[in-house]
């Protein structure tokens, strides 16, 4: 007779349980069961991959009711318990079932137990032996501040979070590279993780890492990998073959058995927060993971998040500061505010900006124009009756895309032909209002018919490889003027860019979201940071940034003038403290979706009634979301706050199970530490 033991398994289902299965002991193809092994089990009518989280002799459930494990995915070495603990922490903190955290972070091909593909992939793994760090490669001599930073990082034993606060162009990348090199030399097995906000936006970093460590297996992880690439890279990482992992936020959930250093580049970037499913902050998980493993973590930015800054002030994190640019004579650009109330804009441009571009063109230097709005015009309208091109499915305007001859909703993707006449009154004279990158491009060509102008935004770079090609042209000097959205504003190391124009940043000043100012400031610093990186131009004049605004006296712009992040941040922190907002208070948002917003609001009101100990937290009124309807779904939100993270977490632990049991038919989800309100 076959002997059985019981394995407890988590599955990728919204049911927050662990499931018991019978596991045949000493049967063929059934190795000794271990925590961290992947198995295939029957679940409902299907078979599913599951992760063993416990092995025991008996189940609380009647053995006859238990089903048997179908097979073991034994090609894959078991996942380690520290990785399971990471998933467990993320699941607990961000309020998702463990199975929905752990399983999706394992490649599909493994979960589907594609034996042949797995065998092949495992066989293809090649351990690179011996001395792997290229030492003969030319490296710049570190500046004093860089050297101190590298040394602080590499001599750290145990957990230590560093905030690498370095102005744009101060050589943070070089610090990462040299710290990584030292770390890899410290042990033959050690792995390091470098996270970036969006890998496709910074192909340069991948190139630098690869050329600096030609003998090292480097694996990338991001959402645009094909399934077979993902399998290959994940396996390289999981088996320790890859010593350097370069990835976006999801890389923090990879299984890295020998992790010894984590770098989070542009740590302030909102894209470290996942906006669906498990709504985690990869930056925060990185710090947790470093603490768990007792290793250093480096959070790099020219404009660190208020959260990290506050930790520096309180002494929890260590600040490493790079106050100057690394390249000789590459000083930060001069920032000038152009008062758009005194210098009226034409076609979106002030005369000062046009003149500045002209001067750069005459010197064969490049200019960058930044406008965070793609499309031709944000809206078209009828002057006779006031009709406006709104999306029929969203509370949003349809954006006019001239080159494609259509109206497009940037929220639900709906496309409509451009009406020849006003749909309401029949007037034939429809007007475009406002400006997007396409219209700016058109206007600019009018001023500079001979200039080589390139627009880089989500519309111009849809095709795979087109962004890389566009960036390449800019680097090679084949472009005179770049017009771009935030895609172009960060990370790029342009050598001949000496002018940055910021076209229309004011809308962020009036946002309902209290983080909008912080975000605008860091965006301004980032985009300004693209100018003047190559050192003094041949003509010896300083690079400059022109910001067109109707509110030049606004404190945010005044602080930007002097690149004084530290000062600006202390003011912001004071405001936040007085208002009890993060990083001094903690927040959770409950979102609800329904056909009618009233139903969503009703659900939120019921949810409030279910809060255990409501007096222990601050409960705000449920409100419709700022963008209330998207794709015909109406949305409302409820904000809950507390001065204590622990208290908020304690409340959620009791509250969420109650919500799960409320049979309302309303879709809802929870977001802990939301990045936007
Ligand atoms: N010690 C050094 N000596 C000379 N040049 C250096 C040194 N360190 C870095 N550089 C150069 O300085 C430039 C800017 O460096 P890097 O791109 O790393 O800056 P960064 O701090 O990451 O900037 P950003 O925040 O804008 O991304 C690069 O061209 C790099 O090669
Ligand atoms: Zn829409």
Can you put this structure into words, describing what you see?
The relative contact order is 0.09. The longest helix is centred in the C-terminal third of the chain and has 17 residues, at 645-661. The model has no long low-confidence stretch (mean pLDDT 92). It contains 18 helices and 28 strands. A hairpin with a 7-residue loop joins strand 1 and strand 2. With 677 residues, the chain is α/β, with parallel strands linked by helices. 29% of the residues lie in helices and 23% in strands. The chain has four domains: 4-106, 3-Layer(aba) Sandwich (GIY-YIG endonuclease); 144-322, P-loop containing nucleotide triphosphate hydrolases (Rossmann fold, 3-Layer(aba) Sandwich), CATH 3.40.50; 334-374 and 436-574, Rossmann fold; 586-672, 2-Layer Sandwich (Alpha-Beta Plaits). It binds adenosine-5'-triphosphate and zinc ion. Adenosine-5'-triphosphate binds next to helix 6.
